[in-house]
Amino acid sequence: KKAGRGVMSFLGNAIGRPNIDLTGTIFITGTTGVIGHRAALRLLHTEHPAVRVGARDPTRVEALSKEGAEVAEFCWDIEDSYAKALDGVKTVFCVMPYMENW
Fold first, then answer.
1. Which residues pair with 72 in a beta bridge?
2. 28 lies in some domain
3. H/E element holding 28?
4. H or E segment to which residue 25 belongs
5. Which of 6, 19, 61, 95 is the S-S candidate for 36 at Cβ 3.0 to 4.6 Å?
6. Residue 102 lies in a domain
7. CB-based contacts of 85, cutoff 8 Å, min separation 6
């Protein structure tokens, strides 16, 4: 089953691209925080076929794994983690934490 068009339109509108094609694997960063976690859940609950979430500590996103997300060990500070996390990904939903003086 494909993801609901409403969710796809919502995400497309949120990034200023209402006609964006959000099929294929979506990689979401920041899923240990509120926004990233909720975005992942929303996609998973609409049965999006491929949701991958990245976390420095995969045990912190076990709830998303139980909902059907693929979990990738990912850390902004470790460039070697990028290739595996992004392999086969078509869309990235990047949620960055607040960083002072950035």
1. 54
2. yes
3. strand 25-28
4. strand 25-28
5. 95
6. no
7. 27, 52, 54, 72, 73, 74
Q: What is the CATH number of the domain that holds 56?
A: 3.40.50.720
Does the pLDDT at position 51 exceed 90? yes
Q: Is residue 42 part of a domain?
A: yes
Hunting for tokens 């949701």 — which residue is that? 51
How many folded domains does the chain comprise?
Answer: 1
Distance CA 30, CA 97 (A): 7
Torsion of CA 51, 36, 75, 2, to 10 degrees: 10
Q: Is the pTM of this model over 0.70?
A: yes
10-24 residue pLDDT tens: 666 666 666 666 678
**Burial profile 27-39: b = 16 or more Cβ within 10 angstroms, e = fewer:** bbbbbbeeebbeb
Q: Domain range for residue 29?
A: 5-93
Residue 101 domain-assigned (yes or no): no
Query: In the chain, which ranges are continuous DSSP H helix?
Result: 5-14, 34-45, 62-66, 80-86
Single-letter amino acid, residue 65:
S
